[in-house]
From TrEMBL:
It comes from Cellulomonas avistercoris. It is found in: Cell membrane. The lineage of its organism: Bacteria, Bacillati, Actinomycetota, Actinomycetes, Micrococcales. InterPro entries: Bact_Polyamine_Transport, MetI-like, MetI-like_sf. It comes from the Bacteria. CDD domains: TM_PBP2 (cd06261). Keywords: Cell membrane, Membrane, Transmembrane, Transmembrane helix, Transport. This is ABC transporter permease. PANTHER family: PUTRESCINE TRANSPORT SYSTEM PERMEASE PROTEIN POTI. Gene3D superfamilies: MetI-like. The chain crosses the membrane at residues 7-31, 66-88, 100-122, 128-149, 178-199, 233-252. Belongs to the binding-protein-dependent transport system permease family. CysTW subfamily. The keyword Transmembrane applies. The keyword Transmembrane applies. It is a multi-pass membrane protein.
């Protein structure tokens, strides 16, 4: 074995360690008997797992993040799918400009995006809260949905839709019975990406939320005095849930290929 052949696996292993150490720390300190200041390891306990809502406001912040994430994902996925189909299939004046504008929220720093949004909301005298957070999340999630679904639309064979039209299917029937089922894997992936971005966001949320609290805001405020073990429990559970979703998708995809 050549010495250079071990370099790439070694760097890959270091990369995985770098990525997984913070997650391992979060999982470990979810079992810490740390009380209100969960900064130093004081002993193993299952109290936080038995009562994940034991810390004040932790579950209300989680519910707020879930509500925002689900609503923003639903709206962004619906609008982004339609926009992606239009950008790939339709030919209209200004199509290039629309493609550029769709990408702007992805390339704009979140601090700039959050500051611009809060300035707009304040100038329009819109009270900051749940509604403004949803609007902000839909705006930046929409770009990612469009990019993900566009890649799927570009791979579709137009002959399938033409065959449906030859069989006297209406445009609406063609979309729901031919196009939409073929787009569904891309739409599902885009929805998962949008939800993860929305649930994880702190910077834009901090600008536009006012008194409304999400889970990332709760963690940020709690970090100065030590994140409570209950927050680590919720974070660990969300990580395991995301891992299970990825595994189930992979298993379902492999089973579909074997048919």
């Amino acid at each position: 074995m050549r010495p250079g052949a071990a370099v790439v696996p070694a760097f890959a292993a270091l990369g995985f360690v770098f990525l997984l150490v913070p997650i391992a720390y979060t999982v470990l300190f979810s079992f810490n008997d740390g009380g209100k200041t969960n900064l130093v390891w004081r002993g193993f306990t299952l109290d936080a797992w038995r009562n994940p809502c034991g810390a004040p406001r932790v579950c209300s912040a989680l519910v707020g993040s879930l509500q925002v994430g689900l609503l923003a994902t639903l709206v962004a996925t619906a609008l982004g799918t339609l926009l992606a189909v239009a950008l790939v299939r339709a030919r209209f004046r200004g199509r290039g400009a629309v493609n550029l504008l769709v990408l702007l929220p992805m390339t704009t720093p979140e601090v700039v995006l959050g500051a611009a949004l809060v300035s707009q909301f304040l100038s329009l005298r819109v009270p900051l809260g749940f509604g403004t957070v949803v609007v902000a999340h839909v705006m930046f999630c929409l770009s990612f949905v469009v990019v993900a679904v566009k890649a799927r639309v570009a791979t579709l064979d137009p002959a399938l839709e033409q065959a449906a039209a030859d069989l006297y299917a209406s445009p609406w029937q063609t979309f729901w019975r031919v196009t939409f089922p073929l787009l569904l894997p891309g739409i599902g992936a885009a929805a998962l990406l949008a939800f993860s971005l929305s649930f994880d966001d702190f910077i834009v949320t901090n600008f536009t939320s006012g008194g409304f609290e999400t889970f990332p805001k709760f963690v940020y405020v709690s970090a100065t005095r030590g994140i409570p073990p209950q927050a680590n429990v919720i974070s660990s559970a969300m990580f395991v849930l995301a891992l299970l979703v990825v595994v189930l998708v992979r298993v379902a995809s492999r089973a579909r290929r074997r048919r």
